[in-house]
Amino acid sequence: MEGIMKTIILYKTQWGTTKQYAEWIHEAVAGTEIGNLDEYGADTLHDYGMVVVGSRTYMGRIAAKNWLEENWHGLKGKKVYLFAVGLVPANSEQGKQSYEMIAEEVRNGLAGYVKIPGKVDVDKLNFWQKMIAKSTQASAPAEVDKSDIQPIVDFIRGIER
Ligand SMILES: Cc1cc2nc3c(=O)[nH]c(=O)nc-3n(C[C@H](O)[C@H](O)[C@H](O)COP(=O)(O)O)c2cc1C
Questions:
Q1: Class of 7-160 in CATH
Q2: Would you kindly state where each structural domain of the chain is located, as residue ranges?
């Protein structure tokens, strides 16, 4: 049997959507590990051949941007796949901008990138966050759809074979 590339899914979340997606991916691909991005860094990822980074998007910024840039020296030799979670579509002007904010070296080195829908639970937001969320997108779904993890699952499986 071919050796399976050791894979970890790291999530950066505030309200739990990104963690939910990460858990679904972890369940869908046997043998993967999962963790909170903030608890990992270049020096704790030596064992992994593949690192899947899931990140919430907040006020125009993919929240894992700084982590990716700061830890890139330890990630360069690995397959690093980024999925962003948010309400702004990836191919909109604002969506493109949030991706292009990430250092070019990191973007060029990513094995893949996708943006999947987020959700907003208005009850959890403070007044300002409600205002911002409103201006971000007119319609925010109350729930996310598990099937949106499919491109990420396919990617991990494709690499493993
Ligand atoms: C105040 C606020 C600002 C947001 N800004 C953005 C944004 O700039 N781009 C985007 O795609 N989504 C944005 N969103 C949507 C979040 O990315 C979405 O709620 C996502 O599910 C949050 O991820 P989390 O649940 O993992 O924290 C924003 C949401 C809030 C409440």
A1: alpha beta
A2: 7-160
Residue 36's SS3 state is strand
Ligand 1 atom at minimal distance to the Cα of residue 132: 1
Does ligand 1 have an atom closer than 6 angstroms to the CB of 23? no
pLDDT tens-place string over residues 86-115: 999 999 999 999 999 999 999 999 999 999
Is 57 within 8 Å of 65 (Cβ atoms)? no
Residue owning the nearest CA to atom 20 of ligand 1: 118
Percent of the chain at pLDDT exceeding 90 = 79
d(CA 105, CA 154): 25
Residue nearest to atom 30 of ligand 1 (CA): 133
